[in-house]
Amino acid sequence: MQRLLADGSFLRVYLALALALLLTFGLALMGLALVDRVRIEQYREQLAEAPLKLLTWRVAALPAHERGGWLTQQSDLLNIRLSLREPADTELGWFDRRRLERGRVLVKVHEEEGWRLYRRLPREERILEARLSGLNERQLRGLAQMLGDWLAKVDGDSRRRRLEGVASEALPVRLNDLAPEGLDSHQLTRLRDGELVIRLMPGHWALTIHLAVPAADDSRQWLSIGPVSALKPTPISLLLLVLVIMLGVLAAIIYLIVRGVEARLARLELAAGRIASGRLDTRVKVDAGGFIGRVGMAFNAMAAQVQSLLRSQQEMIRAVSHELRTPVARIRFAMQMVEDMTDDPAVHRQLHGIDSDIEELDQLIDEILTYARLDSGIVNGAELERTQVDCRAVAERVIETLTPLHAHLRLELAPGPEVEVQADPRYLQRALQNLVANACRHAQSRVQVRLSLESRLVRLDIEDDGPGVPAGERQAIFKPFARLDDSRTRRSGGYGLGLSIVQKIMTWHGGSVVVDDSQELGGARFSLLLPRGLPASKAKLPVKPA
User: Fold this and answer.
1) Does a cis peptide bond (omega within 30 degrees of 0) precede residue 467?
2) Nearest Cα to Cα of residue 41 among 170, 173, 205
3) For the chain, which has fewer Cβ within 10 Å, the N-terminal or C-terminal residue?
């Protein structure tokens, strides 16, 4: 871990997340800027649509030789530079020309030259260009007066059609038969005298232009242009939408980064679990660089080293155990020869003690070989011969075997239900016999075996009325050659391998062994926990674990 921190691997992950945050924040700002820009361009085009429609229609209605003079006159009147341009003479791009061909208004804003407005003449290829530095009251008055004069030349349905063609979303235009409401008497007087009236609406940051348009029957209609509103701020709903999109992009980026890291770490976790269960052939597939790839390579190297060390240890234990049998057999043979050569009772007593020691050494060798066989069996993927085992029958055989050896104790099997489990009967009996024998060595007068069924487990409890096992030693006693009291254990015939063998057998079966206090007898309670049922695929340990 320190090496990973030292070479900056985790730092690169944090930097990647920080860059993702900055990228998302930058995208959000760009999104807001883009939205505002689109809104501003759309507002400008809608605002310029009605005046340019009016100007292009007026120009298109004039003969070609009168257009130049009319444009010059209107340019002076409106303070707008108006000119007709050929499409090839403009600086517009292909997309801009396509928009003009569809009858759209094009607005270009230059920092030095101001605004440039473009629109094609109806049924012509030429383009009307209008250049202005900005909107002012003079232009509003001039355009409104031009619209009023243009509408005054027609009447009835023609006037309505012209009005509907000029109106736009940003610049509504209405023609009413009644005088507009909201004007004071002075404004109404000016309006009746033919003047143009501009009404400000401060509360709405907008203005409306009113103008009287004469009709053919000497009556009047009232033209209202507006309200022309200023560009409103970006709506809160739009800001929230951009924020949600930003958070969504951020979440997606972080998810993709974390998902890749999590997937590779999950493979490491799975491999570690398989190795912990004894499948030391398991390796991690290293399919990418970076710190996780280096962790995977280090993990594989560690697993190979552990596997090699355990194999060497098991081979050494088996070799030493087998080699010990030869000198033990020679010593026993020599002892028997000496015993046949003399009738001295003192010598026979010494020889009997030596024979007991040899027997103890022989049993120790058997225990070591059994432990080594179990341990190497898990390492090498040995198979269990699982069958349906009657646990009560196994417990009865164990009690029947050990009762004659411990006549001062009462060994009993508690009443209970019939319990069956999928297990290797030989190793299950060995594990139960080791625990019962261990309980007999430390019990005062009573040992009890109890069988029970739980939701997913089969439980075999072995209880005694001895001194029990201290809470701080309950994990250590399952280590090989571990003893709580060396002198007492040696005197009672233990070697410190019985509980280790039990633990190996339980691990081999996919179960476990635990120790706590006996609530009924007051001593220790060892419990074998086995899964109730295993699928057929799990009945044997695989020979080549993945």
Assistant:
1) no
2) 170
3) N
